[in-house]
Amino acid sequence: MLREADDIEQSEEYNVDEVISSTKRGRRVMYLVKWLDYPNQRDWTEEPFDNFSVGGLEILREFHRKNPDAPRDYRVTEI
Question: How many Cβ atoms from other residues are within 10 Å of residue 16's Cβ?
């Protein structure tokens, strides 16, 4: 799951179907996210680690178990 907050402090959660890939952008790692119920690639987004909620961390760990050489945010642990 990911969270997104807007300027008026409301938040909405979106369900992650799968993390497709990760890329390093400077010091930051971005994760390409395929959203549940949004199978079209044009709807996928790149998200930083900070946007993942606690429930989404297991999805990140699973991605890195399957892709051990992919760029990883240093906070993704216990894989």
Answer: 22
35 within 8 A of 47, measured Cβ to Cβ = no
**What's the CATH code of the domain at 30?**
2.40.50.40
Looking at the structure of the chain, the number of domains it has is 1
| The pLDDT of residue 50 is above 90 | yes
Question: Quick one: average pLDDT of 4-32?
Answer: 82
Domain that holds residue 51: 2-66
Helix (H) or strand (E) holding 62: helix 54-66
Would the pTM count as exceeding 0.90? no
